[in-house]
């Protein structure tokens, strides 16, 4: 998988060690002093593909959960289709950039971006744009609006492990992906509300996960259990935990 993937695995191991020895409520800086976690969350949540309702469902339902735990600055962008609300902005690149700007900035910002859609190694699909958003475009967008602030990126789709690259991975970022670079992520039957990864990720949040690492670790066995039951290839969800955000809690869960 190349040097980037190997570096990710090494850093992930270091992050795991840090998580084991650090305090439960605060990250540690180089000098061992507790560093308070920022609290001003803002979130952009995207259903990127209109072909099935599951993508829009996950974006709107994650927004509902975030509001219930105190996040006020939320933008939901949906793809035209039966599950898209008339009042929701369309999931296009220009609307993503506009959404970030409209949410404003404060010194205590923490950024969260969730995109769920069809994807492949070129990127994650925005059907309203009829094109793929790639890691460099996403990194430019996040750099411009979030800078060095703590940032959580959740990318749900096939081959989304391809987003864990040197252009996106950073000490202030967490990246959770539904699959490895070379793996397909099991979707869902048309009657299911969510695709498999989104279902498990939301379930992890609902079950009381405190940190984003906890969300990921609870998501993994849930994803694998469904895949094993159906006899489909393992999607192997991937994660990057930057050194500065290993202990980053979910909003409202110090």
Overall description:
This protein has six helices and eleven strands. With 254 residues, the protein is an alpha/beta fold. It has a domain at 2-9 and 40-184: Rossmann fold, CATH 3.40.50. It has a six-stranded mixed beta sheet with strand order 4-3-5-9-10-11, sandwiched between helices. It has a three-stranded antiparallel beta sheet with strand order 6-7-8. Helix 5 (196-206) packs across helix 6 (212-230). The model is unreliable at 1-37 (pLDDT under 50).
Overall geometry: globular
Reading the helices and strands in chain order gives HEEEHEHEEEEHEEHHE
Relative strand content: 15-25%
Q: What is the fold-level CATH name, i.e. the topology of the domain at 2-9 and 40-184?
A: Rossmann fold
Report the major sheet. Answer: 6 strands, mixed
Question: In the CATH hierarchy, what is the architecture of the domain at 2-9 and 40-184 at level 2?
Answer: 3-Layer(aba) Sandwich
| Contiguous runs where pLDDT drops below 50 for at least 5 residues | 1-37
Class from helix and strand fractions: alpha/beta
Roughly how much helix do the residues carry, as a percent range?
Answer: 25-40%
